[in-house]
Amino acid sequence: MIANRTILCFASGYDAPPTSKHHVMHRLAERNVVLWVNYHASRTPTASAADARAVLGKLRRIAGGLRTVRPGLHVLTPFALPLPTQPWARALNRRLLLAQIRSALRRVQRGPLQVWSFAPDVGYLLNDLRAERSLYYCVDDFASFSGYDRQQVLRDERELIARCDLVVTTSQPLQDAKAPLHPRTVLVPHGVDWEHFAAAVRQDLPEPPELAAIPRPRLGFFGLLRDWVDLDLLAAAARERRDWHFVLLGEAQQSLAAWRAVPNLHFLGRKPYADLPAYCRAFDVGLIPFAVNDLTRSVNPIKLREYLAAGLPVVSTPMPEVQRVAEELAGSVARASRPCVAGASCPCSGEHGQDARATHGQDAHATHGRDAHATPAAPPPVRLADSPPALIAAVEAFLREDRDDPSARLHRSESMRPDGWAARVDRIGELLMGDASSNAPGSEPGCRGCKG
User: How much of the chain exceeds pLDDT 90, in percent?
Assistant: First the structure.
């Protein structure tokens, strides 16, 4: 693991709900100093009320100066002009940002400097920062966000990639798009805060009081309620199944008036990260109802693994990365659900069972036949749905299967245990520092799905 460095992190607001960038930086802060720069010059604000509130919040954080939010992690919100297409603003921002960042580094830097950018458009700063290593951590197709200038983002992103030592992507579509731009581009899927979310199945967490008046089954969602969430899909399913209750947790940046009129759609607002396992314990299904478009086709939703770690079955719209994980997990469940029924006489059983399976049972079970090992396949932990009828059918299947198998939640949670953030961050650190033993794609034990 990287240690004794100062990590300069360019990312969106630290005070937003925890995402991959938070988990990565929290891990790095255990052995390094992290200076998180709230970078907000990627998009020109509109005249909307939501943007006005965001600008006021940023001005307050700018006035607050450098702050320490946890041991080893400091947050700076620098002043910069959010005019990404204007050359004069870019030149001014370069001088403003470098002055503010250097001032903060003089106070907190310990050891060599590294740059880890989750923002796509800070390449114009890298030459002046003189970092030991620079990394672009690409988690979204930023050019497809509404309000962004697509061509400007793509130009800025290419500039950043050209100046980095390593590019990390989090989904196969992002890997396919960025790999031609840099020879050292690696796919490292999101991890999960497994210990945190597994509490939903391992601890007797009290039910949040807000849910007391909401009957089960409860179909849950947590995350930002932005234009990529298909609320019309949920509303159509809710009108069809009045006995189901759709509970959505998260801050909305749009009017919800049209959907609040649906009596079994419940919008409860943003909840503390610490409380999410208790909500998951009180849900019956986790939902990822993203509209499928250019933006979401590249998304690897962090909540997919969080739901599963909490034991929830997941119904999602058919995004490529969710489909890949669903197929991978379905295969793992199917393999794990084929215990031998031939009894103690089978060489697959007993002390040397693993070796015996490798030599005779993996394919044809030559000694006593394939049928002796056959058992019904376990239900998949993730189902895809692209319409209200498909969503309803997927939820019905999960409700029925979980009723018949009380251990299903525990099995789903256990399936996420290998995907903790520690293995992800350690893998990236080895690649960034040029560890020769880690150059083979996906070679790091415990980093399931890593490719480069």
Answer: 71
The owner of tokens 């970078």 is 39
Q: With H, G, I as helix, E, B as strand and everything else as coil, classify residue 446.
A: coil
pLDDT in tens, 140-175: 998 888 888 899 999 999 999 999 999 999 999 999
State the sign of the Cα–Cα–Cα–Cα dihedral 19, 25, 29, 31. Answer: positive
pLDDT attached to residue 446: 46
Which one-letter amino acid corresponds to residue 404? D
Regarding beta strands 67-70 and 73-76, do their DSSP bridges make them parallel or antiparallel, or are they unpaired?
antiparallel
Is 90 exceeded by the pLDDT of residue 359?
no
Q: At what angle do helices 194-202 and 302-309 cross, to 10 degrees?
A: 40
Please, what is the angle between helix 408-415 and helix 302-309, to 10°?
Answer: 130
* Residue linked to tokens 């050359």: 87
Give whichever of 9-13, 214-218, 368-372 has the largest mean pLDDT.
Answer: 214-218
Going by C-alpha positions, the residue among 327, 12, 299, 23 that lies closest to residue 174 is 299
Q: With 60 as the cut, is the pLDDT of residue 309 above it?
A: yes
Determine which helix (DSSP H) or strand (DSSP E) holds 426, and give its type and residue range.
Answer: helix 421-432
Residue position matching structure tokens 């509303």: 235
Q: In sequence order, which residues have a C-beta less than 8 Å from that of residue 214 and are 6 or more positions away? A: 245, 247, 266
CB 184 within 8 A of CB 165: yes
State the Cα–Cα distance between residues 2 and 6, nearest whole angstrom. 10
- List residues bridging with 36 in a β-sheet: 9, 75
Alpha-carbon span 247 to 280, nearest angstrom: 11
Query: What band does 55 get if pLDDT is binned at 50, 70 and 90?
Result: confident
Residue with the two structure tokens 């497994």: 194
Count of residues making up the chain: 452
DSSP assignment string, 327-385: HHHHHHHHHHT----S-TTSTTSSTTHHHHIIIIITTT-TTT-GGGG--PPPPPSEEE-
Phi then psi for residue 369, to 5 deg, are 95, 150
Q: What SS3 class is residue 46?
A: coil
CA distance 120 to 152: 10
Omega before residue 183 within 30° of 0, cis: no
Task: Please write the tens of the pLDDT for every residue from 434-451.
Answer: 853 444 443 344 466 777
Helix (H, G, I), strand (E, B) or coil at 144: helix
What lies within 8 Å, CB to CB, of 45 at 6+ separation is 51, 52, 54, 55, 82
Task: Read off the tokens for 296.
Answer: 């979401």
98: tokens are: 């470098």
